[in-house]
Design brief:
mainly alpha, 85% helix, 144 residues
């Protein structure tokens, strides 16, 4: 039961942070624009470290431990495989596109920040799709 709780807590922290950060960043950009956005970009950076990385570590670690304890093969169990693939695709987007964009959003040049934010917004929402697919696969345990 504890492993399940920690696995679900990881999902809530990671997915919640990913979605809420995107919404808040969009709203704050519309309200304040580039001049004050640097502090928002800094907050995004730190919440990603705390909640996205921390939540991902919890959900992956305790999901794998739970599956092993239940005797479920990770890749041969379709819903676990779909969950891992969804998390993997989203993580790849985050590492390759989103983190560099987040670093660029810390710049002092409003034009650089605007371009980086646009890239981050588009790719960020694209990175949410495989996470939602993974969540659906894990909750419904559909075979394929």
């Amino acid at each position: 039961m504890t492993w399940r709780f920690l696995h679900v807590l990881g999902v809530v922290l990671m997915l919640g942070n990913v979605i809420v950060t995107g919404v808040w960043a969009e709203l704050l950009w519309r309200w304040d624009g580039a001049p004050r956005f640097r502090s928002v970009a800094r907050a995004i950076w730190w919440t990603d470290i705390a909640f996205t990385i921390g939540g991902s570590a919890l959900l992956t670690t305790f999901g794998v431990l739970r599956a092993r304890a239940l005797g479920l093969p990770l890749w041969a169990t379709p819903w676990i495989r779909h969950g891992l693939v969804g998390l993997g695709v989203s993580t790849a987007i985050w590492l390759v596109v989103l983190l560099p964009a987040q670093r660029a959003m810390l710049a002092d040049d409003p034009a650089v920040v605007r371009r980086a934010l646009q890239r981050w917004r588009v790719w960020g929402w694209l990175a949410v799709a495989p996470l939602l697919w993974a969540l659906w696969a894990m909750v419904t345990k559909q075979p394929g």
